[in-house]
Amino acid sequence: MSGERCFVLLWMAGDIVYVILVYDVNEKRVGKVLKKCRQYLNWVQNSVLEGEISDANYTKLTMELNKIINNEEDSVIIYNLRTTKYSTRQILGHERASTSTII
Amino acid sequence: MSGERCFVLLWMAGDIVYVILVYDVNEKRVGKVLKKCRQYLNWVQNSVLEGEISDANYTKLTMELNKIINNEEDSVIIYNLRTTKYSTRQILGHERASTSTII
Prior knowledge:
The structure is a homodimer. By secondary structure, chain A is of the alpha+beta class. The first copy, chain A, has a single domain, classed as Alpha-Beta Plaits. Helix content of chain A is 39%, strand content 31%. Chain A contains three helices and five strands, in the order αβαββαββ. The first copy, chain A, has helices at 2-15, 27-38, 55-68, and strands spanning 16-24, 42-45, 48-54, 75-80, 88-93. In chain A, strands 2-3-1-4 form a four-stranded antiparallel sheet. In chain A, β2 (42-45) and β3 (48-54) form a beta hairpin. Chain A is globular. The relative contact order of chain A is 0.23. At the A-B interface, β1, α3, β4 and β5 of A face β1, α3, β4 and β5 of B.
């Protein structure tokens, strides 16, 4: 029973990752891309979102973004940090949004 | 001697970190901010730079950016990943620049 619980916890932990998403897309598609990203992540700055996301939703998000963007013109980078344990975030100037998961 | 070499290696490893920098600044200051960031990091996408940087240069960069930006209007976020060991990067669409340190 203890082993089973351990397995379930490990499986759950592996299922959630922490990502930073930055996009640089033609203004015609900015609205659609932002709307799609906001469904899964938190907006932190112009063209930047971040947050925890399940592996399943990560796959869903990338598939949906691939349908919206133009491969010749647009670019989206997703940094998968897996966890925030090894990262810190420093903000200079004005904080646009308050996401305090990374300290 | 072996202990000394070990200490030197640890000191060197601790001195370099990997960062992602994203900025959202008034267009009047975009040129200056970009120029300053490019002195230390690699441009990867509109308003996004990344790369290895020494602790000393990290401090220098943040001090210099603080002199350029307007605290009421501008925002710069620096994610300090320390190492790329725990991160991956996925690019959707067109790759703007070729920085292949994160796989």
